[in-house]
Amino acid sequence: MPTIHLTTFIKAPVVRVFDLSRSITFHGKQHGANRRKSNCRQNFGPVNINDTITWQAKHFLKKRTLESKITAMEPFTFFEDTMLKGDFASLRHEHHFKKVANGTIMIDVFEFESPYGKIGSIVNTLFLKKYLTRLLITRNEMLKQYAESDKWKAILS
Prior knowledge:
By secondary structure, this protein is α+β, with helices and mostly antiparallel strands.
């Protein structure tokens, strides 16, 4: 199973980084008009344990839908979302947060598996892992930008 492991240092308090990472509102700003999110309980604010979120996005000229659930959460240190339905054979994203003296270390562990057996494995190796890594890096750069400036106030207040 392909795994993406990213570490990002953010000069902001761990509570702020954790809450921005869980924010449906932040994800909406990140992805713009081509993505819509909905939560069984809400369409804004932070997700919590057992929340189910449906993500819709256009990737590779096709509208894709992914339903995920927040399957684990330890406030300010960890949460995990796991795919329930979608185009992948499986997908799990761990979000780790570590408070350090001058900010927060955020670690993403993103595991996925494409369908279609050997053909899917080839697609993972040649293309998909790089594509998904770029999406996560872009997300983390924007999260860093929001958390380290006053932009976070528009999302979390």
